[in-house]
Specification:
heterotrimer, A mainly alpha (321), B alpha/beta (261), C mainly alpha (297), A: 321 residues, two-stranded antiparallel sheet, 13 helices, 2 strands, 1% strand, C: 297 residues, mainly alpha, globular, disordered C terminus
Amino acid sequence: MKKYLTTSFSKSAYVFTGAVILMAIVRNPYHVGILVFLGMNIIITIGLSLLMGYAGQISLGQAAFFGIGAYTTGILTTKLGLPVAVSFPLSILLTISVAFVIGIPTLRLRGHYLAMATLGLGEIVHIVFNELIPLTGGPSGFGNIPLIRIFGIELDNDYKYFIFVWAIVAIVLFLSLNIINSRVGRALKAIHKEEQTASTLGVNTSRLKLSVFVLSSGFAALAGFLYAHYVTFLSPGTFSLGFSILLVTMVAVGGMENIWGALIGTTVLTLLPEYLRFFKDFDILIYGIILISIMILRPEGLYGIKIPGFLLPRSKKGDNE
Amino acid sequence: MNNGSDTILAAKAVTKRFGGLVAVSDLSLDVRHGSITAIIGPNGAGKTTLFNLISGLIRPDSGTIFFKGERIDTKRPWEIPYLGISRTFQNLRVFHNMNIIENVMTGRYTHSSGGILSCAARLGAARREEQKIREKALYWMKFMNIDGIGAKKLKEVPFETQRIVEITRAVAAEPELVLLDEPAAGLNITETKNLIDTIYRIREIGTTVLIVEHDIDLIMEISDHIIVLDFGKKIADGTAKQVRNDRKVIAVYLGEEYGKQ
Amino acid sequence: MSFASQLLQYTLSGITIGSIYALVAIGFNIIYNSTGIINLAQGDFVMLGGMIAVFFHNTLHFPLVASGPIAALIVALIGILFERFAIHPLKNASVITLVIITIAASILFKGGAMFLWGKDAYSLPSFSGDEPIRFLGATILPQTIWIICVLLFIVAALVCFFRYTMVGRAMKACSYNKRAANIVGINVNNMVMLSFGLSALIGGIAGVIITPISLIEYEKGSLLGLKGFGAAVFGGLGNMGGAVAAGILIGLLESYSAGLLSSGYKDAVALIILLLVLFFRPGGIFARKEVQKLKHY
C-alpha cells in the first residue's frame, strides 16, 4: 500500500533530517563525533530490538558481531590492501555466517541458552582479538585503516562521516520498519506473545528466529564496518562483553516492544555519560541502577511514557510498529 | 479410508499418554467433508488433546492421522495450516501486541510468501502481497460482521468480539477444515445465537467444521455428526438423535440433562 | 621438574580452579531448580564474597576466620534482597525480562564494587600459610587443600540439606512441581527466596576461598560466572553431581591447555566446551535416564 511505503520512508527521512539539523546546531566536531557513534549504536540496537522485542530472543554477543565486522574490514584493507568496496561485503558476509552457524543450534533452545551461548561466543571472539597477534595486533590493536571514499568523496572529517552514518541509520530504520509492518513482522510479534499459536498459523518459528538473529548480526557488522573506517584504529577493548551488555541495556531501557524504544534508549545511554562527566568513574553503577529500576518499575521501557509524549514519533491510524 | 473421498479427516487407533494418564486411547474417527462435526465429552475426555494432535502441536504415541488421504501426524505444527487446517483455542489465543486487523492478517500467513529481505525492501511484489493480505483480511472481517474495528486494540473490544477475531483469523486462512475449541465458552444467549449463525456460514462456503463444545444445546442444534469421548475413548458416534438416545452417552455424560426425559 | 610432576602440577591447579567452577555451577543449579531462571549475576556473588572478605580483613582488620563467614553471609543477604526487590515483584515476567533483570543485577553489583573499592585488584592471606607442600615432585599450596575440602564439605552439606531437612525437602519438592508443593502447604515464595540466599551463600564462600590464590577485582565475576555456567550446562542444568564433575573437568582441561598449549587461549577452552555442549548435548553430558534420576540428589 502506497501509504505504508510513505510512512516507513517518511519516518526514516524525518530521523535523517532531524539528525542533520542537530549536526548543524551542534557543529563542534567533538560532539558531532559523539553523534556519529550514536548513529552506529543505533544501527546495532535497531537489529537487537527486532531480535529482543519482536522475536523475543536475546543476544549478549552483539559486540562480537560488531567486532568481527570491524576487524574483518580492518584486516582486509590494511594487511591485504583490498579496496573498501570488497572488504565491505566480505565483512558482512563473514559475520552473518558466524551468526548463522551459532544460531542454528541455539535458537532451538530456550531464551537463556541463547543468552549464554552468545555471551560465550562474545568472550571467545574477544579472546581471539587479543591473542591472534599477527592479524589483530593483540591487546594494543592496529591502525592505519583507510578512509571510505564514496562517489569520489573521501569521508575525511566528522561532518561528512556524520551524513554517511546517519544516511545508513535511515536506511536501516526504513528496512526495519518495513519488516515490522509486513507478514514477517506480524509473525515475529506472534512468536513473541504465543510461539505455539504462531506455529499453528504456519510460521516456521525456529527458521524465522534464525533469520532475525542473522539480520541483527548483519546490522552489527555494518556498524562495525563504519566504526573501523571512522576511528581507523581497532583494539579489543571496544568489543568487550561490557559493550554487548550496554547494547542490551539500551534496548531494554528504551522499551523492547518498540523499535523507537531502541532509538530512545540508545540516545539516552550514549549521550548521558558524555554530558554527565562527573559520573564517568561510576558509569557502570549508574547503568545498573537505571536498568534495574526500569525493569522493576517500568518493564516496558521509556517509550510511551506519558510526560514527554509530544517528543515521540506518533503512529498513524492502522499502523502499529 | 473407510468412507473414500467423502472423508476429509481420519484418525486411526490414535493413542496419546501424558505420563501415566492416557489422554486419548485407541481412538478412531472420521470427519465427513463439508460437515459440522462435534466432539463432546466430560472434562478430561481428551477433546483438546485430540485438537492438539490434529494440529501437530503434539504427536501421538501410536496410531495415525490422515487429512485428505495424506498422513499428518508426523508433520511439524507449522506445516499443518499449509495443508488447509486452521484452528482456534479454548483459552483464546489472540495477539495483544497487534491491533485487530493485524491479528486477522496473521491468518493469511500461509497464503503469502515474502521472506524477511523482500519484506524489508518492500519492492513491488512484497508491496502487492501486503496489499492483498490487507484486502483479504478486510473481506473476512466483513464476512464475520466485524468490519470497521480493524484499527482498534483487542482490549478495546468485548470478550465476545475477541473470540470472533480469533475465529476470523482461522477463517481468513481459507482452510478446508477449521477446528473450533469451545467457541461458545463465556458467551451469553444472544452471542451464542450469532455464533451459530456464523458457524453455518462458514460451512456454507465449503469449509468443514470440527467443533469441541460444552454447550450441549448448541451442539445438538448445529451438528451433522457427533462423536462422544469419555476418558480418551470413543463411546458413541452418530447424528444428534442417535447420540441423544445412546445409553452409554446418557449414562456417562448426558445423564443429568437428558436421562430424565 | 619432570614432565610427570609437571602434569601433576597442572592437575592440581586444574582441580583447584575447577572446584570454584563447580561451586558456581551449583549456585546456578539451585536457582534454576527452584525458578527456572539462569542467574547471570551468579559470578558476581563470587566477586562480592571476595571483595567483602577483603574489606573486613584488610580494612577493618577483622581476623580472617571471622571475615570469611561474615562476607559469605552478607552475600547471602544480598542474594535474598535481590530476589525480594528484583525477582519477586515480577509476576509472569517473560524469559527475556528475567534475563535482563539478572544482567541488571550483575551490572549493579559490579558498579557497586567499583564504586566502593575502585578498579584495583585485592588479595587475602592464605588460610593456613603459604608454605608449599611437596607431593611427588609437585607443590601444593595449603589453600588448594582448603578449596577442595570446602567443595567437599558444601556438597556433603547440600546432600544432607536436601535429603534430611524439612526445608531442603520442601525446596526439592518445589523444583519438581511448584503447584503440588503449594497444595501440600509449602510456601513456594519463601523457597524461591531461600534458593537465592543459598546460591549467593555458596557463591560468596567460593569468593572467599579463591581470593588468597587469585586476585579479586570488580570485573572478575563475569568470566567466573560464564565458566561456571559452562560447567552447569556441561553437567546437565539442574544436575548437582554433574555440576561438580563438569566443573572439575573444565578446570582440568583449562589447566592442561594453559600449560601444554597456550596460556592466552586458556579462557576460551571452557567457553568452547560450553558452546559445543549447547550445540550437541544441550541436556548435558550425563543426560541419560538413570543419571537424570540423581538430578536432585
